[in-house]
Specification:
By secondary structure, this protein is α+β, with helices and mostly antiparallel strands. The protein has a domain of about 230 residues: PPM-type phosphatase domain (Phosphatase 2c, domain 1), CATH 3.60.40. It is built from 10 helices and 13 strands. The chain has a 6-stranded antiparallel sheet with strand order 7-6-10-11-1-13. A hairpin with a 3-residue loop joins strand 4 and strand 5. The longest helix has 29 residues. The chain is globular.
Amino acid sequence: MSKYSSFAHSCIGESHIKKGTVCQDSSLCVSNSRYTFAASADGHGSACYLRTDIGSEYAVDCAQSCVDEFLRNLGEAQANLDNGKERDQLFGQLWRSIVSRWHSMVEEDYRFEPFTQEDLDSIPEQFGYYRERYLAGNFIDAYGTTLAFAVITDDFAFCAQIGDGSCVALDDNGDAFEPIPEDPRCHDNVTTSLCQDDAAYSARFCYFPKDSIPSVIFLGTDGIENSYCSREQLYGFYRGLALTFSENGLDEGLRQLSAFLPEMTKRGSGDDVTVAGIIDFEQLKAMENSLKTSLEENNSEELSEETEFAPNANADDEKTVAAAKNENTEETSENE
C-alpha cells in the first residue's frame, strides 16, 4: 500500500466562530500495509442536536475500526466482491456493524454523562419536540451525523456514505466524477443520518475493481460544496487541490489546504468544512498536465483567494434529518 497516501482536515466554520459553537465536523485518515482509509463526518448543526461533535467523531472512528475488521476477516470471500449481489450483502454487513458500533458508543457516552437541565434548556422552543424525546430517553438524535469514507487496498477500492456532502474522484484525464449514487432524501438542508431509525439500511456504496481504482478520491462535507455556485466550480476546487498536492507533496499540500479552508468558510458557506482523501501520487504526477489543461479549459481556479464563492448559503439554516428527524484538525498518513 506504499503507493497510496491519505489526508484529512477539518476547519471550524465562520458562523460557528460567531456563535461561539464548536466544530461539529470530524475527519480521519489511516494508511498501513493492508489498506488506505479516509473519512469525513458532519454533525448536524441545529441547536436541538446537543452532541453532534461527539457523534461525528465516533462516526469516523467506528468506520475505520469496522473497515479494519471487515478487511481482516474477508479472506476467501473477497472473490465475492466481483458479484454485485454478493458484494451488496458483504457491504451491507459492514455498514450494519458500523451503525451498531456507533450506537453502542453513543449509548455509553450518554450513560456516562446524561443531559443536564442546562443542556435541555438550551434547546430553542421551536424544537421542544426534541426536548421531550430526550426526556423520554430517546437521546440518539442528539448525536446525529453524516458519514462518508473511502478505502483502497491492493486489489480493490470502495466508498460508502450516509447523508449529504460529496465524494469526488478524478480519472486519469483529470476529469472529476462522483462515484457514490445520490440519495434523493438529501436536498437543501435535509439529510439522512446515522441517528435515524433506518440508518442501517440507508448507506450508498460504490466499488472499484483493481484496474479502475481512481488516482484520487476526495471526501467533503456539505460546507465545501455549499461554498460554490455550481458543481463545475466544486470540481475545479478539487482539481486545483489535486494539482497543489502533485506540485508540492502531501505535507505542503495539506498546509496550503489548511490555510485556504478558513477563507473558504468565511467567504463561502460559513459552515464547518472538511476535506479528506486518498491519493496515488505516482499516478497523480503522471496526470499533472491533464489536470492543468482541464483547469484551463474549465476556467477553474486553483487554491486561490480569487475563487468565486456562494456567500453563506446555508450556514444559519437548521439541519433536518430525512424521514425523521475540534477546532481545526488535520492528519496525513503516508507509507514510506
